[in-house]
Amino acid sequence: MNFEAIKAIYVSEMARTRRTLMQSVVSPVISTVLYFVVFGAAIGSRITEVDGVSYGAFIVPGLIMMSLMTQSLSNAAFGIYFPQFTGTIFEILSAPVSFFEITVAYVGAAATKSIIVGAVILITASFFVPLEIQHPVWMVAFFVLTSVTFALLGFIIGIWADNFERLQFVPLLIVTPLAFLGGSFYSISMLPEFWQKVTLLNPVLYLISGFRWSFYGQADVSLWLSLLATMVFLGGSLAVVHWIFKTGYRLKP
Amino acid sequence: MASILSVRDLEKTYDGGFQALKSVSLEIEQGEVFALLGPNGAGKTTLISTICGLVQSTGGSVTVGGYDAEKDYRAARKLIGLVPQEMPTAPFEIVGDTVALSRGLFGLRPDRKLVEKILKDLSLWDKRDGPIKSLSGGMKRRLLVAKALAHEPKILFLDEPTAGVDVELRRDMWRLVSDLKAQGVTIILTTHYIEEAEEMADRVGVINKGEIILVEDKDELMRKLGRKLLKLSLTAPLSEVPPELARHDLTLSEDGTELTYTYDSQADRTGITTLLSDLSAAGVHFQDLQTDQSSLEDIFVDLVKRD
Predict the structure, then answer these.
(1) Domain boundaries defined on chain A
(2) Chain B neighbors of A13, CB-CB under 8 A
(3) Are residues B211 and B233 in the same domain?
(4) Residue B239's CATH number
(5) What is the pLDDT of residues A1-39, one digit of tens each?
(6) Cβ within 8 Å, pair B105-A5
(7) Which residues of A touch B91 (CB under 8 A)?
């Protein structure tokens, strides 16, 4: 195991984060605060409690989850795409580094970054709404698992993408809509029955539901289903990454 | 001398069916400077990329310092430093950091002293805290060399190290190569500037259309294939080569003031003595003479044209 290499890539990726602090940490926090102002204060004041939780507090887990997913995805995707775009990937591919180590470093850095963003959002939210976390261990578990899983997914997208459009395609056109429709801002019990059934097809719903359960002890679907969904995501991403390693897909002509 | 890199029957056919390498075999000796010459698209970069693990070979094997480049890729790659032809750099990365990153990738602990020495040797020390985008083209080229040297490789690949650089930088690069050679680093460089190979190389290999068509000691090659020209500046211009001199391989310059005689310097009989006596018999007088040895460039063009 080439730990020095993992460290070197990780440190260099985190340095990139520091250089782009505005874009990578400050901007997601600002947009989350905007969500609070719009949904929590302006609209939320007209909505009574959802399942016994104030609307402002209700949306916090959904917002964090949404940021975790989009941040992990785009960080990891960009992290591995950019060296391919500039050509600097040659150095990593010709070094005595295994694909596994490359993944650990890039995915680790992207997940770390989104965990920082998520934590900052959580702290910011605590200034606006009364938060309670009933199951902190589960909360941390979902937090970390989601970051890692979506960073893996982002890593795959970054390798697959051969232009900037493709790079943005999945985060913007698939994950963001799924997160919005997966109960970030509402409980599916608020939907007509037909749409409740449709929403159950949305995989992101299970992640948000599990995460919200760890806060308020209430969920749209059972905790175990949520956990299973997270594991399926994680397993699926790992399988694809494994396939990329075996075939050298896109990395090695 | 022992061979540090051996390439055996290496083949690469790209997905589209293009055969970039056709059973290439090559032995590189420890401590030598080997110049790989070839026209654009001959397979120089593919060969290097395959040795370095950037391109998956479709046949054959590569051994670096006794380690199989695929099975023992970690041990093999640790010996190799690569300076690619293009200048891929991450524009916002800090110069000092990027050299440290390169060292880390090879599994080595950070070594500030060494990084400082490398950056100083390549006149980049003043720029260490700046982003890469603030460097000029020549500095970027040197930075890539610095990155390749950060893990103290035993073999250094320089892919077109002086493509598109000015004369001064080219001289710097040549100096660097001879310094590294003095430290015992084996250097393999590709180029299509023949003068570069002539200046630096111990041995020369010529690759064309994916095949190594020649590997030869440079001096030997130049001796063997070297044609010499004897140029005679005439006292009075001629309108044509006199018929009594027709048996010699002579060409007359357009203004009729210079006769050029081409001969093989390795031949037993160069024919110079008979030419000179024939000249005086024909009443052709000259005021000056000089000889020219054909350059590697001429040899190279001949070789590539041949097939």
Answers:
(1) 3-247
(2) none
(3) no
(4) 3.30.70
(5) 889 999 999 999 999 888 887 777 788 788 878 887 887
(6) yes
(7) 86
